[in-house]
Amino acid sequence: MSYSNQLNLNELWYRGIDDRPVVTGPNGQVTTRRELFSAAGSLSSKISGKKVAIFCKSSKLETIALLAAFKTASAIIMPSTNQPEALSEIKTEFDILLTDEATALDIETIIVGEDGDYTLDKSDRTLIDPNLKISFFTSGSTGKPKEIYKRFYQLDNEVRAWEKMYSSEFGSAEVHSMVSH
């Protein structure tokens, strides 16, 4: 079995930018990888070097936020929810919240959009730091939210393992998302 189309996650900003469709919206609107990366490029200039928390209800906007953070952030925080109480519990862990909904909290926030006038060029084709820290927080249902962190290379290894196990079953199947990321 050959995995010649396999893309290492750390190469997303290097080889992942092309015009293949990647997201189809509820009205059949197709978004290409290039459009996602362009929106992420616009966002990345606003978060460079900051620890970011990301929680978007839209999978598309969550992807844009993640791509921007992969390119420039010093750390990524993935809260279990965007509820004010949960975010208040962990707000000392990040500098800025990337979300698709306004929050009433006293937290620096950027509302993630899918548009941008960012022009992609060869300087965007950089490798993602394999040691980038990504922290996932539990819901805290039995107390305070608990941090579980991974390095970017660990996520890359997980995706490779999943692809190796399931790629022949799924082939070019579409993925439909209906649950939290």
What does this molecule look like?
The structure is a single chain. It is globular, with a radius of gyration of 17 Å. It is α/β, with parallel strands linked by helices. The longest helix is centred in the last third of the chain and has 19 residues. 33% of the residues lie in helices and 18% in strands.
Question: Secondary structure elements and their pairing?
Answer:
Elements: H1 12-15, E1 21-24, E2 30-32, H2 33-47, E3 51-55, H3 59-72, E4 75-78, H4 84-90, E5 96-99, E6 109-111, E7 133-137, E8 147-151, H5 152-170
Parallel strand pairs: 3-4, 3-5, 4-7, 5-6
Antiparallel strand pairs: 1-2, 7-8
Helix percentage: 25-40%
Count of runs of 4 or more consecutive helical residues: 5
Unreliable runs: 1-5
Main sheet attributes: strand count, strand direction, barrel closure? 6 strands, mixed
**Overall geometry:** globular
- Specify Rg, calculated over alpha carbons: 17 Å
Give the strand order of the largest sheet, numbering strands 1, 2, ... along the chain.
Answer: 6-5-3-4-7-8
Mean pLDDT: 82
The share of residues in extended strands comes to 15-25%
Structural class label: alpha/beta
* Termini gap: 30 Å
Number of strands: 8
Please provide the ordered H/E string of secondary-structure elements. HEEHEHEHEEEEH
